[in-house]
Amino acid sequence: MSERLPQLWPMMRRVERSALTTLSQCLKLLGLTELPLPVPVEAWVESPLGLRFGVCDLSHLGPTVLGVARPKEREILVSETIAGQESRFRFTIAHELGHIVLHAKIQPEFRELAEGDYLAERFEREADRFAASLLMPLDAFGREFTASCSDLGLQANTVLHAIQNGDETGLRLFRSRIVQRLSRRFGVSLSAATYRFADIQLDNGLPALTVRQARSLITPSPSTPDSRQPR
């Protein structure tokens, strides 16, 4: 399989590259040659990225606000309500970092945005994409997926084809073993790990999973943090 960047969405390719540039910057400043997994985004936003970071009560901004990014002040705040939800907490930090890296010249503050505002939705999608790219770089994600399959005595392409063809054994193995391992390895939710497969381009130019296929593999309770893509 190939871990090349997707060829279909130029805007999303730009976001992927911005996340990779951010990771490269951190590695260089820290004198590291290998990317640690899970990516220590909680530590890196302060050093080496030099942002102010805090966990606090954000209820005065609205009941659904989980994070705030203030690019001019180079500040990220995360709601204390998710401090104990590791994957959600990490993704929210990376999401707000995405706003600072991608949208610093657009507006002074980012938070949960009004429904139906197309431009705002676009910025939120880009920040989500940045977070997924930062926490699950495609090359590392592809290697870990291949290793997970190998440990089970399987080929990565065989597993993907089984999933794409609706093979029940393959689907059960993917859910119970492979995605669980990837979720732990990258410190993300099960849904985030599953959706990341839609960003992997195979040698035939098609995604490893379509978004619809990825969605069909996710069956969390609506009350759990995994019910929202992809935080």
Looking at the structure, what is the overall shape? Answer: globular
How much helix, percentage-wise, in residues?
A: 40-55%
Q: Tell me, rounded to a whole number, the average pLDDT.
A: 86
Tell me the fraction of residues in β-strands, as a range: 5-15%
Distance between the termini: 26 Å
CATH topology of the largest domain: Arc Repressor Mutant, subunit A
CATH architectural category of the largest domain: Orthogonal Bundle
Walkthrough of the structure:
- The chain has helices spanning 10-30, 41-44, 86-102, 118-135, 138-151, 156-164, 168-186, 190-195, 211-216; strands at 52-56, 67-70, 75-79.
- The protein has 231 residues and is mainly α.
- It folds into 2 domains: 10-135, Orthogonal Bundle (Arc Repressor Mutant, subunit A), CATH 1.10.10.2910; 138-227, no CATH class.
- Helix 1 (10-30) crosses helix 4 (118-135) and helix 6 packs across helix 7 (168-186).
